[in-house]
Fold each of these.
Amino acid sequence: MRLVIFGANGQTGRLLARQALDAGHTAVAVTRRPEDFPIADPALTVAGADVHDAAALIDIVAGADAVLSTLGVTFTREPVDTYSVGTANIVAAMRQTGVRRLVVVSSAAVDHYPGRTGTPFALRVVEPIITRTIGKTVYDDMRRMETIVRDSGLDWTIVRPSGLFDLPCVTDYVAGEVDPVGTFTSRADLADYLVRLADDAGHPGTVVISTTVNTPTMWQMIRREAFKSA
Ligand SMILES: NC(=O)c1ccc[n+]([C@@H]2O[C@H](COP(=O)([O-])OP(=O)(O)OC[C@H]3O[C@@H](n4cnc5c(N)ncnc54)[C@H](OP(=O)(O)O)[C@@H]3O)[C@@H](O)[C@H]2O)c1
């Protein structure tokens, strides 16, 4: 398959590009910084574009079998529109070029999962605070993105991971239209699931993905988020 990957130069996106190539796919990695993209492969094209530039996306998306998005923005108190405007531009480019399959990464934090398994007390206290304060503009824009994707008329899947962290290998993760959802998702697992979803004839709608082994402690995650926020 020819997979177009937005956010390809991010932490999940680089894993996704590598895994897509290793699975035998052709990949187009889209980034605003093509000169920094670390992977070279005969089956890889690196395309420079900002997703706010609607016209630039048309040639990039044309001919794709699936479009995958791991676009991401750091927490900020400023307004955020990268998820919504960027995804609306991707959807428009797909419609214009007849590409049907779209898989986007959102977050489990945009919704309420009352049965969430093994959720530490610290997360139950801290997550609502983050989503209403330093993370508010990001999560509000993710919700706008989800609406755009659901209304797109495309063959879409929205993937909602939990707190992202890094493991060296793909694990036996839990994913799909399941609830309760876990607390953490490794980026390698997320990338693996995205590659699988690219070719999923069943086209599941809104799904979650949880990693259940070798997860970090809650305080490691909170410290990391606190230092990352602007
Ligand atoms: N961190 C968490 O715990 C967590 C939890 C749940 C969900 N998520 C979501 O999971 C996804 C992946 O996270 P991640 O940590 O792997 O992401 P990341 O490292 O922050 O990478 C996101 C990438 O998006 C690209 N991007 C941002 N604005 C862009 C624009 N205007 N045009 C084109 N590309 C743009 C950037 O690439 P360039 O700068 O190269 O253009 C960046 O490398 C994100 O959607 C994130 O919100 C994160």
Amino acid sequence: MAKSQSRISNLESPIHYNSYGHFLREKFGCRVYKVSVDGGFSCPNRDGTVAVGGCIYCNNDSFRPRSADRLKSIADQVAEGIAYLRKRYGAEKFIVYFQPFTNTHAPLEVLIPRYEAALDHPDVIGLSLGTRPDCVDESKLAWLEKIATSRFVTLEYGLQSIYDSTLVRINRGHSFQCWQDAMNRTRDRGIWLGTHLILGFPWETQEQMLHSADVLSNHGLNFLKLHHLHVVRETEMARIYQEKPFPLPELEDYADLVVDFVERLSPGIFIERLFGSAPEQQLIAPVWKKTNGEIRRVIEQKFIERNTWQGKAVVSSE
Ligand code: SF4
């Protein structure tokens, strides 16, 4: 049996990919949930440090959960988020996820008290920071490395595409090389490394998107969040789409694309998300009229129908 196959088939569930949720539960021996908070940061791609206007698809309100309210203190956001997740899902331990905007975009002396406020709750086991690859430096990484000796620390470097032509087109304000440099500087510090990738840019070919799996498999990533391209209100992409609609994936096509992608992804990378989501009132397209659970089941059914799994078609880097 191939090494990749044996790894996936160790899972007790019928899931055919390495789920980050399963991993957390196995690692900590209980139900671990992420509590999203708003740390009160801005984004260098909006405030003029790198650019203004931001990424053309970005509306932070479209991915801000109820608990993340910058008008409240971090301690209050954590306490309220934990109370909600305990009641709703029976969650036992928590990772505080600094989610909206760029959560390392401030001097270290500003960051530390905010991170410490999050870690202060007795049931918080770790910290997860959503940020940009051009927004970390040695002092921040060294501090996080120290915290990672006793807590679970993850850094999520937004990337969205490995192609510089796409990064320019979506106004990311950094290159793929910048992401690789950040990965190289962060690796081997005990910090878990994640990234976000969007599938479905209409100008990227299917083979280009699948090749992203080959490339990302070889950068020491610990986990990955996949998002389908969707258009949300109050973004530059919405303006472009409404002026001249472009093709967006139907759910069945996207499910096949994700399965193709995951087949080529190293089985050593845990998958935290298989698709994006946005509140109904924010979403312009594509509208699949399904709950998140239903979308996940459509994708998981594809793995079953196709009798395939993560890493089945990994391209050797030798
Ligand atoms: S997606 Fe992230 S980096 Fe881009 S504008 Fe929004 S907050 Fe900034």
Amino acid sequence: MLSFDVLIKNGTIITMDRKNSLIVNGVIGINGDSITYIGQEENLQLINASRVIDAQDGIIMPGLINGHTHAAMTLFRGLADDLPLMEWLNNYIFPAESKIDSDFVYTGTLLACAEMILSGTTTFCDMYLFEGDAANACKEAGMRSLMGEALYDFNSPNYGSPENGFSYTELLIKRWQDDPVISIAVEPHSLFTCSPKLLREANELALRHQAPLIIHLAETEDESKYIEKTFGKRPVYHLDELGILGPNLIACHCVHLNSEEIKLLSDKGVRVIHNPESNMKLASGIAPVNEMLSSGIKVGIGTDGCASNNDLDLMSEMDTAAKLHKIKTMDPTAMDALTVFKMATIEGAKALGMDSFIGSLEVGKKADLVVIDINKPHLTPMYNPYSHLVYSARGSDVVHSIINGQLVMYDRKLLTINIQSLMEKANSLAKRFI
Ligand SMILES: [Zn+2]
């Protein structure tokens, strides 16, 4: 006799397992935080489930993985648009960030969690300031996250002088080391804000704690020029000389790479997060994702922060990614729907080093999954679920969400976040930036 805490039935299951198996009329059983059964409803013997969720012929799929965010920047959404990266950062974002505090980050991150759960994301990878408060918000929301404090060579409104950033990061690692949903990375901001000394020390800290090292890399042409002028080498070679290219490194953006640099990243086992909408909005360029995938690099997809996107909806990000690479290559077969959907699920999990427990729906993996309502005009009829998810579905089509076995959204109602009072607080915090 099979008994479950939660049983989800009556849906097409997109597993994202090794064979990309689809299960029509599928059921998924969950016990505690894990998936304990997956199969067709007619094969399921005796059922005893504490809670049954009817997917109503919809899609049951792995929760989406947002590989790169600055979650609390939801509170800067629309503050400064239509500017180049350096002007945007130096004249608008960095001055605004000098006014933030722990309450700002907690509130902004919780708002980000609400937006991400409502649009199908169950895991995100974050870099920001006051990241301990971001972790508290994430924990409260029930989301899974890999997060870390932004480290750089100037004073931080959170930890003060640069050297304190390391001790703050170490405190975060210790505080969250046994947490089931939150883990901590070491996160030097970028090559243009971090000295070689800081970068080396950050890498040593990451290796000592077996934590990922996360950085913005080769995001703009200006960055490449500046690093080449200052250090005599392009960004990837600069990091290589510092001994930092390795399998613990997750590099966000990687827009400006030549074929030798792609090969070097691949040889060293570096993982990459692609952020197409942010790269488009800041006119940073188009990352060579096809070439990176062909060379065997694990590539995930992210939204980046809300100030450069300006939303955290991975459904629209997938649509953009698929179309952007077709127009770049003038090849409509480039970046097909399944490839893009993989970047937002199992390949994204690989890029974050989490594929042993999330990214696909399989027995033994953590129960991180969402249900999509397809009983809608823009999703009727359905020939190919991957096509629908990448080209037709919207974040608002997600109806239920379970993270680590916990139901966090049911019938589009958030169960862990009081959205009305949160939005009122966000509006009141925004007044300090007007
Ligand atoms: Zn970023």
